[in-house]
Every structure is written in structure tokens, then in C-alpha cells.
Amino acid sequence: MKRAAAVGLAVAGLGLSSLVTAAPASANGTAPACVKRNVYTVVGRYWEVSVRNTCGRTMRVRVVGSFGPFDCHTLKDGAGYRHHSEWGKYKRVEVC
After folding, report:
1. Cα–Cα distance measured from residue 51 to residue 24, given in angstroms and rounded to the nearest whole number
2. H or E stretch including 74?
3. Is 72 among the domain residues?
4. In terms of residue numbers, what domain contains 29?
5. pTM score over 0.85
6. What distance in Å separates the CA atoms of residue 43 and residue 70, rounded to the nearest whole number?
7. Counting beta carbons within 10 angstroms of the beta carbon of residue 66, is it exposed (0 to 12), middle (13 to 18) or buried (19 or more)?
8. How far is CA 20 from CA 13, 16, 17, in A?
9. pLDDT digit string, tens, across residues 61-92
10. Cβ(93)–Cβ(36) under 8 Å?
11. Is the pLDDT of residue 96 over 80?
């Protein structure tokens, strides 16, 4: 009886620990306000985000859409890029 209870607790503990350590695929924080973003949407066709770094230092950021994050970009101060997608919706820009 004691052995069965110990095994049950061990299995339950393993299940809980996996819940605690599991993180979403996109666990990075949202980019700060100094990373400017402008979102353009043509309903039913595509969406596009213009991202510009005005933070005064190099930043690594990426666009996140409804299907997950896209490639990470290293932007020097003043640099920017555009991301265009025909799938899903724009969610945010995050650090990476």
C-alpha cells in the first residue's frame, strides 16, 4: 500500500513538474515602446508590419503572428524592416 502511494505521488510530481517547466513557443517579452511598429492590413488579403529601432542601442526583435513567431532580426539603432504575411493576424513584436 505504501509503495503504491509513493509511486502515485512520484508520477503526480512528474506530471506537475512538466506543467511548471513547460513554456509556450513564444515566451519572450513584448518589445519596448522604443521599437516602433506600424501595422497595415488589407482585410482578406494580407497584413504587413513596419518595425524600426529607435532605442539608441542594437535590439533583436521578431514579429509574432497568430501562427507563431517569425525570424529574429538584429536591428542597429535607426534600422528597420518590414514583415509581410498572407496568413493569420498580427499579434505583436517581441524581443528575441
Report:
1. 24
2. strand 73-75
3. yes
4. 25-95
5. no
6. 21
7. exposed
8. 11, 6, 5
9. 999 999 999 999 999 999 999 999 999 999 99
10. no
11. yes
Residue with cell 503572428: 65
User: How far apart (Å, rounded) are the C-alpha atoms in residues 45 and 85?
Assistant: 9
Domain count of the chain? 1
56: left (phi over 0), alpha (psi -120 to 50) or beta: left
Does the residue 87 lie in any domain?
Answer: yes
Q: Is residue 3 part of a domain?
A: no
Residues 25, 22: Cα–Cα separation, whole Å? 9
CATH code of the domain containing 58? 2.60.40.20
Any domain includes 40? yes
Q: Which of 81, 43, 40, 83 is nearest to 64 (CA)?
A: 83
How deeply is 60 buried, as exposed, middle or buried, from its count of CB atoms within 10 A (0-12, 13-18, 19+)?
Answer: middle
- Distance between CA atoms of residues 43 and 92, nearest Å: 18
